[in-house]
Write a structure and sequence with these properties.
Largest sheet: 4 strands, mixed
Distance between the termini: 21 Å
Structural class: alpha/beta
Strand content: 5-15%
Number of helices: 9
Number of domains: 2
Helix content: 55-70%
Strand order of the largest sheet: 1-2-4-3
Radius of gyration: 17 Å
Oligomer: single chain
């Protein structure tokens, strides 16, 4: 399993709804991303699969690197952040979405039913991000460090809606290990 980083000028223009995009050397940007991601790719992808009890359905996932967009997992699309470590963090976030949802929903239905029942008073986005942020916490602490995870939490508090903030609060209160355990034992 590996990630293939791609820039499509047409896709980029459609997403940004602009013909004249800011100049980014995508060849250089993608080479920098590849170099950094290759250090962790195999280990992180295996760890996500192991943690979730789910298998990757593809052997090759295309990741579109674009000028400016919100990141999303289907198709995997991430803006060309200035900092490569931030790109990697967002990539991991979207990959966790991918394995939990893409082609694995039937296998994880009971786990999602548990989350939706336990957190019935939370928003849909908060519910979807509770197991994701728990798994991402594990990845941060195993492969990177607590400071990098805290940077993500602070960034979310500052720049996103309250749903992401709320899911991080729940993960920190209940413990990422407990959430992962309760979620994955139902897969």
């Amino acid at each position: 399993m590996e990630i293939e980083f791609i820039h499509s000028k047409t896709y980029d223009q459609i997403l940004s709804q602009r013909e004249n995009l800011p100049k980014i050397d995508f060849f250089k940007k993608i080479n920098g991303i590849k170099e950094e991601w290759k250090k962790y790719e195999k280990d992180i992808l295996n760890e996500i699969s192991k943690l979730t009890n789910l298998k990757w359905k593809e052997t090759n996932i295309k990741c579109y690197v674009v000028t400016n967009s919100i990141p999303f997992s289907e198709p995997l699309t991430i803006p060309a952040y200035k900092k490569i470590d931030l790109f990697i963090d967002v990539l991991i976030h979207e990959l966790i979405h991918s394995i939990l949802n893409r082609n694995n929903y039937r296998l994880s239905k009971e786990a999602w039913d548990y989350i939706f029942d336990k957190y019935k008073n939370e928003s849909l986005s908060t519910k979807l991000h509770i197991p994701l942020h728990a798994i991402h916490s594990h990845i941060y602490l195993k492969f990177f460090n607590r400071e990098r995870m805290i940077r993500d939490i602070k960034k979310i508090r500052k720049h996103s809606n309250g749903d992401y903030k709320r899911s991080w609060e729940i993960v920190q209160k209940e413990g990422y290990q407990n959430i992962i355990k309760e979620f994955t034992k139902r897969i």
